[in-house]
Design brief:
single chain, alpha/beta, binds S-adenosyl-L-homocysteine
């Protein structure tokens, strides 16, 4: 199979605007190559997050940040590439017109596209995905890597293929952190936008008795089911294809949704309309700049904000209707 590899050239502060703009196009799976991150990692001895690091990564000293997105090389994929180009042009003109409250240099926002073979894609990102500790005692391990389990540690295996959720993204880690703060032992969890199934599997490993994972994307559904099976958790985790906007009649003790700012607000509206006795909801994928807007919208709907967690440019909340 052939893929279109799209590279967007930006800056470190521009990354958030670029990914937020891609989110608007329902593009969640991005790969970011940030030389600053490498610098941080290089200086971070015994870091809690990266257990291994590919030496090749440390050799790069290019200053520009690159955001990569991949599409199938078909009509739909080519249409998406055009949309990305238009969005980046519009972002650049907004920057030049001074539309942002803050002064930010988004960089060139140049979009390059090239055709690659899917094997090259797989080999490339597989090189960058290593065991990741997403919360204190829970490690996510790619299927193709070895990891020596330490005492008291929980390890899940993931092959994300093209779905989102390797554990290396802040929004996933924040969701997992908030999930681990709630007592989910013997509880039912609903994971909205399950992606690779990572949070569903995490919830099951933390003792949930039943986990429902839903996703709008058929590929994600297939991948998440595969990952649940890989971890021998198919008897606990049930994955289905569903658009949460069409409503969901799943009773749960806790809901987790790692989506994006606008979508989490839509979701909370739906939850509120669905019934009186709705459970606490963990919301992630909220870009820092939208934290206040999201909180205001939720408070206006009658939600209480129970907890706020932040990592770098991202915020996650636990809220109660
Ligand atoms: N839960 C994973 C993946 C989050 S990415 C993690 O935390 O890492 C967000 C996921 O939400 C994507 O897989 C996307 O397909 C899904 N999604 C987006 N809009 C949705 C909708 N309306 N209904 C259900 N799933 C949706």
């Amino acid at each position: 199979m052939e893929l279109i590899k799209v590279t967007i050239y930006t800056t470190r502060p521009g990354t958030e605007a670029v990914t937020a703009s891609l989110f608007q196009l329902s593009i969640y799976e991005t790969e970011i190559e940030d030389p600053f991150d490498l610098e941080t990692i290089r200086n971070y001895k015994d870091g809690p997050i990266f257990d291994y690091l590919d030496e090749d990564l440390l050799k790069k000293d290019d200053e520009e940040v690159k955001v990569y997105v991949y599409f199938k090389n078909d009509d739909e994929g080519r249409r998406k590439v055009q949309e990305v180009k238009l969005h980046m042009m519009s972002l650049k003109s907004k920057e030049m017109e001074g539309c942002f409250d803050f002064k930010v240099d988004l960089g060139r926002l140049y979009v390059k596209d090239e055709i690659i073979r899917s094997e090259d894609y797989e080999n490339n990102w597989k090189k960058n995905f290593h065991p990741v500790r997403i919360i204190e005692n829970l490690v996510v391990k790619p299927t193709w890597e070895d990891y020596e389990e330490k005492d008291g540690e929980l390890v899940m295996e993931i092959d994300p293929e093209m779905a989102f959720g390797t554990g290396s993204h802040e929004t996933t880690r924040l969701s997992m952190k908030l999930l681990s703060d709630v007592d989910i032992k013997d509880k039912t969890v609903l994971d909205i936008g399950t992606g690779s199934g990572i949070l569903s599997i995490g919830a099951a490993l933390l003792g949930a008795k039943k986990v429902y994972g839903i996703d709008i994307d058929e590929e994600a559904v297939r991948v998440a089911r595969g990952n649940a099976e890989l971890n021998n958790l198919s008897h606990i985790i049930e994955i289905s294809r569903r658009d949460f906007k069409e409503g969901f009649n799943i009773k749960a003790d806790i809901i987790v949704a790692n989506l994006m700012a606008d979508l989490v607000v839509d979701l909370c509206k739906i939850i509120k309309d669905q019934g009186k006795d709705e459970p606490p909801v963990i919301l992630s994928g909220i870009i820092k700049e939208k934290e206040k807007e999201v909180k205001d919208a939720l408070t206006n709907m009658g939600y209480s904000i129970l907890k706020t967690e932040r990592e770098r440019d991202w915020t996650a909340l636990t809220v109660k209707p």
